[in-house]
Amino acid sequence: MNTYGLIGYPLGHSFSRKFFTEKFAKEGIDAQYLNFEIPSIEEFPNIIKNSSTLRGLNVTIPYKQQVMQHLDEISKEAKAIGAVNVVKVSKEGLIGYNSDVIGFVNSIRPLLKPHHKKALILGTGGASKAIHYGLEEKLGMETLFVSRTARQGMITYEEVTTEVLKEYEVIVNCSPAGMFPHVDECPALPYEDMNERHLLYDLVYNPLETLFMKKGATMGACVKNGLEMLHLQALESWRIWND
């Protein structure tokens, strides 16, 4: 029986384990999907060493960057993004990929209109790297990061003005603001300046409709959560492991 799994810390409720366990059962695949909750990336080599049936891993917070130093090879895309969320375990060694970018691009693309030329990326964590790469390299959009603290090449939330929102009509939330249990929180933006030309995409999928999405929808904006992205990146993981 082949083994697949997820490394991260803490793992708590794992979408991946549920998704793949159901997939294996439904499709009659002789495999198991395990959670490897490790408090330090230094324990990663032990997982590889102690599981002879391991064929692939997903990688989540906080190890998407840290895992890279333990791999034999990294795909061009994952290298450019600077984060790995899929590891293929093969005779050639450990190969790192990024399926977040494919999941994101394929889920946002159908919603894009010709006037969507520029995007704001809220948050600067690991997930934002794949989003930035997807928007710029795959979708040809211009992007601008929004951070809580002033940093070079970025703007702060206080600097998101009416004029900025006129120019940047796609807004992608890569921050945890609004994620369960903090459902009454949302990124600090002038939502009253949004309209039907705006597209608000939230990587958060619990709850399915965040306050960020609700406020945008009230102003007529198109909104979407990160659930489809999650499904698509999981299917891409499967394709990578079995290619």
What is the overall pLDDT average? 96
From the helix content, strand content and strand pairing, which structural class follows? alpha/beta
How would a crystallographer describe the biggest sheet? 6 strands, mixed
What is the H/E string?
EHEHEEHEEHEHEEHEEHEH
Query: Multimeric state of these chains?
Result: single chain
Q: What is the percent of helical residues?
A: 25-40%
Approximate shape: elongated
Number of strands: 12
Q: Number of helix segments?
A: 8
Which strand order spans the largest sheet, edge to edge or round the barrel?
2-1-3-5-6-4
- The radius of gyration computed from the alpha-carbon positions, rounded to a whole number of angstroms, is 19 Å
Strand content: 15-25%
Instruction: Give the distance, in angstroms, between the N- and C-terminal Cα atoms.
Output: 18 Å
Spans of at least 5 consecutive residues whose pLDDT stays below 50 are: none
